[in-house]
Amino acid sequence: MLAGRCRWCDGDAEVFLPYARLSLCRTHFKEYIVRRVRRTIEKYRMIKEGERVLVALSGGKDSLVLLHVLLAMKNSNDPKLSLNCDLEAVTLDLGIRGYSEKCVSVACAYCDEFNVPHYTVKLIELAGFTIDDMASQRRPACSVCGVVKRYVLNKVGVEMGFDRLAMGHNLDDEAAVLLSNYLSANVELLSRQHPVLPAREGMVSRIKPLFEVSESETSMYAQFQGLTPVDGKCPYAVTPSTHRFKRALNALEEEAPATKIKMVRGFIERVKPLLDNIETPPGKCAVCGYPSSSGICGFCRLKKAYGPM
Ligand code: SF4
Ligand SMILES: [Zn+2]
Ligand SMILES: [Zn+2]
């Protein structure tokens, strides 16, 4: 369907959003997304007045969009949009030759441009190994990478005293994980799926402000705002297992717009409360003291096996 005229200013529309039957020009599309994320933050009480928020900035599209949208709120004079918080960003240098350098340089340049305090954490310094080392040991790079990202970003958030760690997961990511957890009837993972995970001992509160913004909307936002994410793919990228769930959900969305958002909101509002007593808080890692559901956390086990002797 052609976009036609912008509903808000009658200018040429560049976007048509089928689920809202809404055509918008570039300027108003940005405003629409910022407003929507602002409402999400309000509704789920993601960020409170004056809190310190650490944005996980990988250099990929969604993380750049997330920081851009949060900055738009922070700099807004509109009382409905403005968000009084302290924004900083962190990038984890995973040590993937030919790729991590690009991610770090995109993130640094972006934070310089927008005047955002930025930290780079090198995995080699923290753990004594890189993702390249893991791959050369025939360890599945992405699963190791998942463990170290979760651990290191949380550790930085806790040690630097941040109130929130903001992640760039979008609606398509959230819906695909939800469908995957439903299909495998993984009640434990379902009980932990929420756009706001509260802080507890050794854990910074984790939030997903973009979880109601679709993948195609973050792509259009990045393109219209001239954001240039890291060029090229990680050499270890494989088609993630959630890819087929995304494809299935896209087909459903095509036939019935708003399927994904209804599914995710329905889960949070009506299913998740029924699962709240299932979640058991993890114990502590015997080595580092951070939360872990087994005696020694995944990160410490990797460090022991592959870190310096
Ligand atoms: S593709 Fe895999 S190894 Fe590469 S950055 Fe992503 S999760 Fe890490
Ligand atoms: Zn307009
Ligand atoms: Zn540990």
Structural domain tally: 1
Spell out which ligands are present: iron/sulfur cluster, zinc ion
How many alpha or pi helices?
A: 12
Tell me the CATH topology.
Rossmann fold
Q: Mind telling me the C-alpha Rg?
A: 20 Å
| Top CATH class | Alpha Beta
Distance between the termini: 61 Å
Secondary-structure map:
Layout: E1 15-17, E2 22-24, H1 26-43, E3 52-56, H2 61-74, E4 86-93, H3 100-114, E5 118-122, H4 123-127, H5 131-136, H6 141-159, E6 164-166, H7 171-183, H8 187-192, E7 196-197, E8 205-207, H9 215-224, H10 243-255, H11 259-275, E9 283-284, E10 291-292, H12 298-306
Parallel strand pairs: 3-4, 3-6, 4-5, 6-8
Antiparallel strand pairs: 1-2, 7-8, 9-10
One zinc ion is lined by residues 6, 8-9, 11, 24-25, 27-28.
